């Protein structure tokens, strides 16, 4: 649906040339929610703005529905852009216009009749849960409500793709949750493909099917959300994942625990559960597992659990226990147990 192929973009700043994007390629399938995550300055905004050519890449192709947008005439580009909606961190609403007018004014510019405009505004305000706010002004709305208006405004043009530029970054955690739920609903019920950028791993965790991690203008890791969570490869990806699963084990306690065994992290998905496997471990092998911390998180389609445990016992028995856990489809990390090296909590 969206193919960015070898996109590069430089800006000339006071300190010279800045390579915001260096040969970036990503591919978003129809119907999926695709997230791009990175720290400030990674190039996310530049990338998402290239999709509707708000930013024109220096080189590379922007292919949407099999058409290279960089090759279109201004007229055809305008039509193609009509299929791509966008929402922003700052909502971008007209302060002096009512909720109704904010959605209706851009619709009128497309040549729709008054009645068609009215029907669409009513329909989409209902979908975003603001059917009773037609006459309110943005200043009378909460941040979450403002973002709902912006979403309704984007949806009213019946796009196939919705671009979300940090849409939840200015919102509190509960409101963020509600807006993410709304994006999921839009994706599932209206079949809209969503490409979003964020610096928050919980956004990726809750709604994205796949994710690209960006750093210094490059995609450093890419894959299914599930795979990125269970086996992040790049140090930056690990930092993002750990931001959700911080074990916060003080170094002093960790050193004490290492004297009597190994500290390992167990990750498990859906039906595979860490705890029954752990109960079996203590029966089958001469080891004493002790749960140090644990959490279960809901990804878009399944649950993901993590347990940090201390395995007390003889090294050979611990090795056997770890092999057994791996056979039970539990991912075991945090100790170089196979090579018998010193343990390391990641
Ligand atoms: N119009 C511009 N002129 C000059 N430099 C720019 C411009 N837009 C972006 N940059 C630079 O390009 C790099 C990437 O910026 P970009 O905004 O894409 O990153 P980001 O990952 O979205 O970060 P943030 O979350 O802080 O917006 C940064 O170094 C930024 O300063």
Automatic annotation (TrEMBL):
<keyword id="KW-0547">Nucleotide-binding</keyword>
<dbReference type="InterPro" id="IPR041701">
    <property type="entry name" value="MetN_ABC"/>
</dbReference>
<dbReference type="GO" id="GO:0005524">
    <property type="term" value="F:ATP binding"/>
</dbReference>
<dbReference type="InterPro" id="IPR018449">
    <property type="entry name" value="NIL_domain"/>
</dbReference>
<keyword id="KW-0813">Transport</keyword>
<dbReference type="InterPro" id="IPR050086">
    <property type="entry name" value="MetN_ABC_transporter-like"/>
</dbReference>
<dbReference type="InterPro" id="IPR003439">
    <property type="entry name" value="ABC_transporter-like_ATP-bd"/>
</dbReference>
<dbReference type="Pfam" id="PF00005">
    <property type="entry name" value="ABC_tran"/>
</dbReference>
<dbReference type="Pfam" id="PF09383">
    <property type="entry name" value="NIL"/>
</dbReference>
<protein>
    <submittedName>
        <fullName>ATP-binding cassette domain-containing protein</fullName>
    </submittedName>
</protein>
<dbReference type="InterPro" id="IPR027417">
    <property type="entry name" value="P-loop_NTPase"/>
</dbReference>
<dbReference type="InterPro" id="IPR003593">
    <property type="entry name" value="AAA+_ATPase"/>
</dbReference>
<keyword id="KW-1278">Translocase</keyword>
<keyword id="KW-0029">Amino-acid transport</keyword>
<comment type="similarity">
    <text>Belongs to the ABC transporter superfamily.</text>
</comment>
<dbReference type="GO" id="GO:0006865">
    <property type="term" value="P:amino acid transport"/>
</dbReference>
<keyword id="KW-1003">Cell membrane</keyword>
<dbReference type="InterPro" id="IPR045865">
    <property type="entry name" value="ACT-like_dom_sf"/>
</dbReference>
<keyword id="KW-0472">Membrane</keyword>
<dbReference type="GO" id="GO:0005886">
    <property type="term" value="C:plasma membrane"/>
</dbReference>
<dbReference type="InterPro" id="IPR017871">
    <property type="entry name" value="ABC_transporter-like_CS"/>
</dbReference>
<feature type="domain" description="ABC transporter">
    <location>
        <begin position="2"/>
        <end position="241"/>
    </location>
</feature>
<dbReference type="GO" id="GO:0016887">
    <property type="term" value="F:ATP hydrolysis activity"/>
</dbReference>
<keyword id="KW-0067">ATP-binding</keyword>
